[in-house]
């Protein structure tokens, strides 16, 4: 196929490799994750054996080069993995999303060869990663972070507290942001690789959440944690760049998660509508229910196109930050709307834990909050529009 022909392929077209990968992840999710979803939700925990299975499947190191034990695959593959896992369990998808789109993705670009040799074999084979930017007083205003890094010889001494760290409970490595020169404002922010067993580092409170309950969300405590200068990610004072770039990419991952979630909720509702009878008919025979299903399917289709298009733009090295913000903004709405309306198709049982609808509904809410709230996405979109 010529390059010209490729450029005109429909957005949903997958390469043979992508299609096979998607099928493999889908099968894994259906066979291995589905039977455990409600237990994991109830216990608010992804068991270690499930995490080991994710590593075994190769979805925890999708973009890590093969020399370090990774799959050396593409960003688009990460998007497919997140979407497929979220169809079955958005909480497991969150774990994989953070590992690939926030941690590994940043490190592929910013680590030097020595650092890659040190950290990638772990992240590709058995070590969960986490991304620690937010703090109690700095969420949307992330660069107002208060964690400090003081240089002492060849070591930075880190003090502060991080909040809301996804994978915080399971992680062995943390891509963590601290300010090494507060006088310079956000230009003092520096990214570090912090290891869980470093003296002075501890994992604090784990949040008890509405949705994605099995995904851990934790406080991190840093008390005179000595991080060697050799574990600075990128340049000193350029952490803000690492953070911004990563979050732009991460937003596509959240779009994929919300579309996978919407697809999962939709499929359950479709099956139920065909099977549930009232007034002597399957409820799917009523035009009102049919139109509801048609609207939901249309929204999912539109959202998926945005996710795939933005992921392809990123992969082709084209500007994508604007559409990434739009994608996250729109797909988180789709996730919430579809999950809510799918629950209503179930009627009363949709409101119980006997059926999966209520979990999708709870899980959907986070899409509008993390990796930049909906208002922050609108702020980005509007700023781009006004600049042009
Ligand atoms: C389950 C979960 C997992 C998370 N995982 C991570 C993680 O792994 N790593 C990490 O670093 N962080 C993580 N976070 C943090 C998350 O990114 C923040 O919660 C989010 O960015 C919002 O910050 P905040 O909670 O401080 O809300 P605030 O910033 O206080 O916002 C509160 C409200 O004010 C609005 N608002 C704020 N500023 C403006 C403005 N200028 N204009 C208009 N409206 C505004 C917001 O839109 C929102 O509605 C996670 C959070 C949750 C809940």
Task: Walk me through what this model shows.
With 388 residues, this protein is an alpha+beta fold. 52% of the residues lie in helices and 15% in strands. It contains twelve helices and ten strands. The protein has helices at residues 3-7, 16-33, 37-43, 48-57, 75-88, 90-110, 113-125, 239-275, 287-315, 321-345, 357-364, 374-387, and strands at residues 129-132, 148-152, 155-166, 173-179, 189-195, 201-206, 217-228, 232-233, 277-278, 281-282. The strands form three sheets. A four-stranded mixed beta sheet has the order 1-4-5-8. A four-stranded antiparallel beta sheet has the order 2-3-7-6, with helices on one face. Helix 2 packs parallel to helix 5 (75-88), helix 5 packs across helix 8 and helix 9 (287-315) packs antiparallel against helix 10 (321-345). The chain is globular and about 80 Å long. The two termini are 36 Å apart. The mean pLDDT is 96. Flavin-adenine dinucleotide (FAD) binds next to strand 1, strand 3 and helix 12.
